[in-house]
Amino acid sequence: LISVLNLIIYRIERRSIMLDELDELVKKVIELIEDKKYVLVKKEFADMNEADIAEVLEELQEELPTQEFIRVFRLLPKDIAADVFAHLPVEIEQYIINSLTDKETTNIIENMFADDAADLMEEMPASVVRRILALASDETRNDINHLLKYPEDSAGSIMTVEFADLKENITVKQALERIRKIGIDKETINTCYVLDLQRHLVGSVTLRTLLLGNPDAIVSDIMDENVITVSTLDDQETVARQFQKYDFMAMPVVDSENRLVGIITVDDILEIIEEEATEDMEKMAAILPSDKSYFRTGIFETFKSRIPWLLILMISATITGTIIDSFEAKLAGITGLVAFIPMLMDTGGNSGGQASVTIIRAISLNEVEFKDIFKVIWKEIRVAVLCGLTLAVVNFIRVLIMNALGTGITHEAIMVNITVCITLCITVMCAKLVGCMLPILANQLGFDPAVMASPFITTIVDAISLVLFLKIATFMLM
Q1: pLDDT digits (tens, 9 = 90+) for 92-136
Q2: Cα(161)–Cα(144) distance, integer angstroms
Q3: 310: which residues sit within 8 A by CB, 6+ positions away?
Q4: Is 116 exposed, middle or buried (0-12, 13-18, 19+ CB in 10 A)?
């Protein structure tokens, strides 16, 4: 525990240091701009990574007038401007595109990788997309349109068409000559993909193998024929799991006839993992997913993403009110019972939430399938028994101490305590069963299991715990 806490503290401190450094750099750049020392600003950017420059520009966009901000962006060398542009949020990309000349826009689009350009098109308004496509070259336009035709969140929509391919009948020497010729424009050349005359994928070969191989050897003789591929229509989460399983830096994408149409690189997968994790967290918190960052989401947009589930959960909570109303007369007989209702409902909701989040994560990692439902139930029952008994014993002792310090330990107080503890055990068991079963059933029916997370399950478990408590209390005390 101490090691974990130290690691968390280290990361917080490290992140704090990085943010302080970024703030100081932004202040320095602003001071240079105010003094019209643009040469020094350009020099500052020259030694920085493209992603770091993008962070600085993101901060500057909020501090500088439009004209000054665009002037700063124009200070970037043409060979890195496109890379910096690809790291910026889509709102700033649109902001820049609308302010640049046609020539400058063309330079950026032509120097971006096709998958980044396609992502840009998906986010831009139609008028901006028409302008960009009109300025792009025929080859770039064809590459972008090729990627845009695939379904959203599919492997085809996130792949890049800039890959190094080799024919199977050429020599190693010819292969290296081809890589030198085309490699400058490719996203990666560490792994080259070997094709036959019909562009079917028949193997792969690493640059290391080519460099160390006999120059006169034929590529088909030294290639690896066991190539792991994904289909253009595979879901991006499936692709991410393949990367995690095989520890690849790049993976080829093929069509239904096993023709190579593109590759997916690990940098795209890291973005997908972050995007999918964020989406699952939002769904588990009963929020409609959004692809915008927190501060770039407007107040009304945030309201629209939160209010639907709040309304649903508020209306569904009337079930618990109805249950309490139906037992109102009996509750009046023993007022001590009412004080335990919040504790039972919270414990049940928390227990169900633990089980649901654990199972949702296991489903997303492909560790749990529908066929495993009985194994999951059996495990959760045993966990629920241990948790329920522990909570019941602790609660029994806690209530006895409170009674001893208060009104005293009476027969009625002990019976109420026993009733609460029995209900607590059964509630925890029911909550864990509901929490583990609903995500699996939702996934089997084609729904996102993340929807069956804490808020939804809490509402169900609240109703169950109330009914159990009041029925058991009626049986034991009345």
Answers
A1: 888 888 888 878 877 887 787 777 777 777 777 767 777 777 777
A2: 9
A3: 286
A4: middle
